[in-house]
Amino acid sequence: MYHYYSYREQPLTFVLIHGSWADASFWDGIAAHLRQMGHIVYTPEYPGHGADPNKNVTHEMLTKSIVNFIIANQLRDIVLVGHSFGGTLIQKVAEIVPDRIRRLVFLDAFVLLDGESVVDEFQAGTRATFEQLRKNSKNDTIMLPFPIFRETFVNLASLGLAQQIYDQVSPEPAKPLFEKLDLKKFYTLNTPRSYVYLTEDTALPQGNDVGWHPHMSNRLGLFRFIQGNGDHISTAKTHPAYLANKLYEAGRD
Questions:
Q1: What pLDDT is recorded for position 212?
Q2: Does 38 reside within a domain?
Q3: AB hydrolase-1 domain: which residues (predicted)?
């Protein structure tokens, strides 16, 4: 099912943006392989995630932290990759620093329409679950119950690996998931973009009118489509070289 190739044609600079219920360590294996392939790789972690105890964050704060990281490191000509919720962040980052971006790559990522929030893309039952989990939390966060996480985020993993990954998950700040985003400028940009779709990813339901592809991907207009095998989270741990090559296929000229 998995095939490995060694690419040396074009060194790129990748900036990898993680998703919800994750932190920068999501990219560890993938980033290591991209570096072995000769690329420069950055994996910024945005507020409310990782070791940051403050969960009172907004989507604008997360976007600004990534923009500041790019500017502070004097990064240009970058391949900006967003996974899952990270797709909404690279949409907003692209609005602010389009001149620094060579290509946008969405890895099973949200591509929101103008005026949408992430939860607008969930089915009614899932949205209600999220709202209840948010209401029950003490700090406006959402912690996925293990059965949901196991069946939808790490469905290809063994039970042991699924539990190991889950044990490292922190509650997700709820506010950015419910914020409706102004994306008018994003839809005026001509930045090249790619969509990487992993066929076993069930974090969103699969189907033409829901889910990652073609529902999200087709919103990009003209885009490069790269397909592979994998689920939402565990494949990054078990087959990082495979995903690194998919990101290269998506990011190269």
A1: 98
A2: yes
A3: 14-203
